[in-house]
Amino acid sequence: MFIIVFIIILAVLVLVHEFGHFIVAKKSGMQVEEFGIGFPPRLFGLRKGETVYSINTIPLGGFVRILGENNEFQENPRSFINKPFWPRLLTLVAGVLMNFIFAGVLFSIGFMIGLPTALPEGQALPAHAHLSGQGISILGVDPGSPADKGGIGEGDMIKSVDGHSFQTIEELQAYVQAHLGSTIDFDLQRGSADVHAKVLARVNPPAGQGATGIGLGLVGKLSFPWYIAPVVGFKAAIQVIVQTAAAFYELVRHGQGLSSLGGPIRIAALTNQVTKLGFVYIVQFTAFLSVNLGIINILPFPALDGGRVLFLLVEKISGRRNNQKVENWANTVGFALLIALILVISIHDIRFTIHH
């Protein structure tokens, strides 16, 4: 099931991104040759006007083929390369903007249903908000910790510990501290399933970790009326965009290694976790992925949308057309480096998954 969910999530996110490029290119008068669902080889296609709408074999996204997107067909006035600066710029950034808008839509849907939200104890609810099903939840699990080895996962709700129910995090932490060196029985709720885990409360845990290796929070499903949920949802999307961009900046600034990155395999593993938790968790997870996809694509690296934007800005500032051979070469090398990076990250993810 989670593999199907994983494929659907990736396909939807890429299609949303590509639809942004498609619709702006069409409205700008560019000749769009193909809008493909999935990646070649093609299974079948339907031509409507000048555009072929195709279904392809590999169901992991989609693509848009615009005439002249690789700086050819300079003699055609509807070629991408012959359009003015602003239509080309908007076409290049439209995919990223669609990913951000889609995240806002998903957060809005989540807040209509009831989005899992961690709220500090004693904090007043926002206006018009309703909180249901609040309880102590697992917000994080340290790799290799007793909780990790015992099968506890992020998003699990704690029903009882050694048969005792706790209303506050402080009460639960005090109980664990009183039973250091002992094995503690956790009864958990994971989506609609009941989970039982035996966890050792370590006497001397590693620095920065607790006795069991879990991070706790009071989590409930926060919902709003349908006419307020979109406002709250898009505000949440903006906050996530800013926070994610800041995290990327810190990652680059401090030169953190591969342990800070995740590729398709890590995403698939996370999809497995959220699928077990339920539909609203999948909606929330997809919103976060949509933001990440948008931010990665706008990075000023050749072959990414941000790299193409950078070349376009150089052309605008210099007042003359770029050397097309150099630009095409840079995009080709950039694409090869991205594929190599994905492979390296995937190998790291496999090792991480096997080890933990």
Sheet having the most strands: 3 strands, antiparallel
> What's the total number of strands?
8
Q: Quickly count the domains.
A: 2
Helix fraction by DSSP (H/I, runs of at least 4): 40-55%
Going across the biggest sheet, name each strand in turn: 3-8-4
Q: Which H/E pattern describes the elements?
A: HEEHEEHEHEEEHHHHH
Counted by DSSP, the helix tally is 9
Query: How many angstroms does the end-to-end distance come to?
Result: 22 Å
The residue ranges in which pLDDT falls below 50 over 5 or more consecutive positions are: none
Mean pLDDT: 89
- The gross shape turns out to be elongated
**Rg from C-alpha positions?**
24 Å
What fraction of the residues are assigned to beta strands by DSSP? 15-25%
Q: From the helix content, strand content and strand pairing, which structural class follows? A: alpha+beta
How would you summarize the topology of this molecule?
Elements: H1 2-27, E1 32-48, E2 51-66, H2 85-113, E3 115-118, E4 130-141, H3 146-150, E5 157-161, H4 169-177, E6 183-190, E7 193-200, E8 214-223, H5 229-254, H6 264-277, H7 279-297, H8 305-318, H9 324-355
Antiparallel strand pairs: 1-2, 3-8, 4-8, 5-6, 6-7
Helix pairs in contact: 1-2, 1-6, 2-5, 2-7, 2-8, 5-7, 6-7, 6-9
